Amino acid sequence: MNTNTLLAWLPPQHRRPLLQRLLIVWAVAFLIGLSTWNGDVAKGNPSALDVSLVYSYAISTFVWLLTDVPRFAFKRLLRAQAPHFWPPALPATLMLSVGIPLGYVLGTLVGDAYAGWSTWDLWRLNTNRFVGMVVSAVAISAAFVAYFYQRAKAESLAQQVTQSQLMLLQSQLEPHMLFNTLAHLRALIGQDTVRALAMLDHLDDYLRTTLLASRQPLHPLSDEFSRLDDYLCLMAIRMGPRLVFALDLPTTLAAVQVPSFVLQPLVENAIRHGLEPVVAGGRIEVQARTDGAQLLLTVRDNGCGISELALADAARALPQPDDSGKPDASWGLSHVRQRLHTLYGERGSMRISAVSTGGTCVVLSLPLTTPV
User: Fold this and answer.
1) Residue 196 and residue 73: Cα distance in Å, rounded?
2) Global pTM?
3) What residues have CB less than 8 Å from 53, skipping those under 6 apart?
4) 85-102 burial, b if ≥16 CB within 10 A, otherwise e?
5) What are 24-67's pLDDT values in tens digits?
6) Which helix (H) or strand (E) holds 361?
7) For residues 247 and 299, is the Cβ–Cβ distance under 8 A?
8) CA geometry: angle at 291 spanning 290 and 293, to 5°?
């Protein structure tokens, strides 16, 4: 049985965070064990340090195992929903009411087996001390759960904020493109009916896919490329021979789920800030490739290139639109960077570089698995 089969119950994106939480629990368990040993020595009840650490690690690990892991392993029974799989109030209360005391009991049994005595005898010999131990263990365990729960809520809120920023960005991008397209379409109707009809067809497809994408945070990569194709066809009709583009999407990657609109700001930046200022125009290439378990999405143009100031702004926190209300180059790039970080953490990144022959290259790297 391989590791993937053994961890099939655990969403891939939660495997590393689950291990990180266990390491945090163990780090605190060491401090608790050390503190307990010091307290016993100070009270004149000396005990071996290793015994205190075994009790601390055993109890902490079992409580973690019975409160953090079940929400993934029994997500259907607990009605735990993505992205963070915290159950509703009632199932969560039942899980904690069972998991924390049971974890304490199991951990204590392990400690007793190591130490060669029974903690439960303490109930008979010193009831107050026994109750104090139980209450403190339960309080510490509950504090762990509360901390991880609040951190998950903060991550969820960050995702909601990023999604709202996406809608703001989209609301600023769409009218600019739409009004220019309609104005150009009106001019074409009386001069070139064939091109006007082609433009209208692409506009219809573009608006349809935009509406669908706005209703879902993720969609297949083929939909993202289809939307870009309609957008670039519209821009090619407007700019004529000044715009040449190529989209390269392998069929094996067509169904991969990616964040909606993740490439749109990059392509718009390439046209508005890279090609439109150049009299001769230029070429845009959008490519999808894999590198191990990572999906690489590349947007490359041979325009006038990105300025050092825009590069510096894109690396900082999300800036505000300029005085005209339109997002500048760094706004779109910063938004994409922040969105990848919110969805994928360290597994998502954006690299921007100047092309030696002129132009800009932006590479997005994100995991092939779906964020949850």
Assistant:
1) 56
2) 0.55
3) 29, 30, 33, 34, 37
4) bbbeeebbeebbeebbbe
5) 889 988 988 888 788 777 766 666 888 889 988 998 899 888 88
6) strand 360-367
7) no
8) 90
